[in-house]
Every structure is written in C-alpha cells, then in structure tokens.
Design a protein that fits this description.
Layout (H helix, E strand, L loop, with lengths): L1 H27 L5 H28 L8 H7 L11 H28 L3 H25 L2 H5 L1
Helix pairs in contact: 1-2, 1-3, 1-4, 2-5, 4-5
C-alpha cells in the first residue's frame, strides 16, 4: 500500500505541475491564433486543476496525509519546466510530451490500485487517463500537418 500512496503523491504533484505549465502557456502564448490557443491552454489547466482535489481526497481516504506545501510538490514532481514563452509550437510539443508521460504513470498507478483492490481509485485514474488522452489527441492534431495526417 505504501508504494501506491507514494505513486499517488507523485501523480498529485505532477498534476499540479501540468496545471501550472498549461496556465503559464495560457498567459504567455503569442500567435495569430492567440484567442484559440489561449482558450485551449485554459481548458487544459482547468481540467488538471479540477482533478487536484480528488487526488488529495484519495490520499486522505487511504489514511495518508496529502502534501500541500509548494516545496513538497517541487520535491515530488518529475515534470520538466522549460522556459517557453511566445511561440505556441514548443508549448504544444512540451505539453504533449509531458501529458503522454503522465498517461504512462496513470496506467501504472491504476494497475497498482487494482492490485490493492482500490477499485474506486482505479476508476478515477482511468477517467484521468481518458481525459489526458483526449487532450493529447487535441495537442497532436494541433501539431500535425495535412500531409502527416494522410499517412
């Protein structure tokens, strides 16, 4: 169970890091498509922000304290923090790569939850996987050109 709790703390920290990354891109994107990208990045950070409380509540339901100090999140997270401002292409690519890695972690922790017979947690993580996969599809579609899509 302790491995599951540690993994859940990591997911919480990474969820917060992804939220802030998307929020920063929301603030700092510059492009002819500014309004659309500003809104899109806003939808991403709101999605991740909306999941934050549930991660913490699962830790509490499993009789563990949820980290809450910024230093704890910095110590726990494994999300990179490149400085990207203005150009939307590297923002989109960075978010895509970050969220793809997060999906892999969700799958592993979901399996751990099932092994511990924490099926409600596994369902929550499966829902987060689905939401993240949808975001990745949208990010990928934003990166692809028409010729790449034909392949």
């Amino acid at each position: 169970m302790e491995n599951l709790l540690s993994a859940l703390r990591l997911l919480l920290a990474n969820n917060i890091a992804i939220k802030f990354k998307a929020h920063g891109y929301h603030w700092n994107v510059e492009s002819d498509d500014f309004a659309q990208l500003h809104e899109f990045f806003g939808e991403i950070y709101q999605d991740y922000d909306g999941a934050t409380d549930t991660y913490a509540e699962w830790l509490r339901m499993l009789k563990s304290y949820a980290p809450y100090r910024l230093v704890d999140f910095f110590d726990l997270m494994n999300v990179g923090e490149p400085v990207i401002v203005g150009d939307p292409e590297p923002m989109i690519e960075d978010l895509y790569d970050t969220i793809e890695k997060h999906i892999e972690e969700l799958v592993v922790v979901g399996e751990m939850a099932n092994n511990e017979k924490q099926f409600g947690l596994a369902n929550f993580l499966a829902d987060r996987q689905t939401a993240s996969q949808k975001i990745c599809w949208q990010l990928r579609a934003s990166m692809e050109t028409e010729t790449e899509m034909e392949d």
